[in-house]
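Researcher: Sit down with what I've pasted below and flag anything odd:
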Amino acid sequence: MSTGLGTLLLADARLPVGGHTYSAGLEPALLDGMPSDRVADYIAARTRTVGLVEAAASVLAHRAVGGAAAPGPATDGPEGVGVDAGALADVHEALLARSPSAPLRDISGLLGRGLVRLADRLWPEHPAVKALRTLGRAPQRPIALGVVAAVMGSDEAEVARVSLYDDAQTVASAALKLAPVDPVEAAGWVLGAEGVISASVAEALAVRGPDDLPARTAPQIEGWSLEHQLKTRRIFVA
């Protein structure tokens, strides 16, 4: 699999990792009264806060497992070279410490578990996949994303960009199910986020280690997630 194709696959909404269950917080935002014409602003706000933290965590996870792809059927390369399970666990703990909302941690774990399942099917013996499994049943999505991207051969910039693009696209796709939105307009929101995404990619790549991981929060999004958890009529988990 070429690097470009692997990265595109990770950004594909049809990837069977459970992304269809998640609105990136848009459903509770709209239910609380946020008008649909502010969705582009919502995407930009997420990119600068939650998105940046997750992209940086994905980059650090990518580095922790060496950032190298399996050369063959996941058994050919030097076993364990470049894979630091301890460093991966440190990044995971740092991300959890920056994720105060239990419902958002839960959905991130659900999405992470989907990526682990994918990795287990495709590269069950790869050292990076084995290191990912040591984090438990449901590692946070950004960590799993960084590891899977490394196994696929994506570079750090691609990892950061796909993390941020996926978040923006998740919001735009959810909007089509939640509000009277023209699909062309939704595509325009994602295209319009290119500037803030590129700036956030640069910030994510500048992070050097878990202690340096940004701690930017979005209190309103976290509050909405706690309220949404209690609702009995909803389309998305969060």
